User: Fold this.
Amino acid sequence: MAVSVQTMARAEAMALPRAKAKSSRLDDQSLQKMVDKLRNDLSILEVVGVTIVPDNPLMLSVETMEGRGGPFMISVDESFLSELTDEEMHSALAHELGHVWIYTHHPYLQTERLANEIAMRVVTRASLVPVYHKVWERLGTKGDLNEFLGNGQ
Ligand SMILES: [Zn+2]
Assistant:
């Protein structure tokens, strides 16, 4: 659940062939469909790809290949994906697209809270709560939901 700017070399390395996801029902293609729909709903014009990777220490992240204009690539940790329901995955992708929206509109305002405010234009707060619990469980940390999602009022 983070945004970073990485070099082309790193981005290309990520695109190398890899083992297919085995445990999850969702594959690259079905995730891409979710991303395209969310991108449309959030009026994000830039190209955003999504790929399942064997290991993403952040569980989910988005990076730009060439700066503000994108294209952007969302990387999803394979085993984390298998722990999420489709709805939770959909909301997690909305969160990452929130980062893209900020990056292309107000790049200096990049925060988790604002990414969620953008995401909550199209998904519910309730659907993001279990995503945070699962991320924190995997990372062995614990945060304040109200800090990340607002108090729900
Ligand atoms: Zn994030």
About this structure: Confidence is low (pLDDT under 50) at residues 5-23. The two ends are 23 Å apart (CA to CA). Residues 1-2, 95, 99, 112, 115 surround zinc ion (CB under 6 Å). The first strand starts at residue 2 and ends at 5.
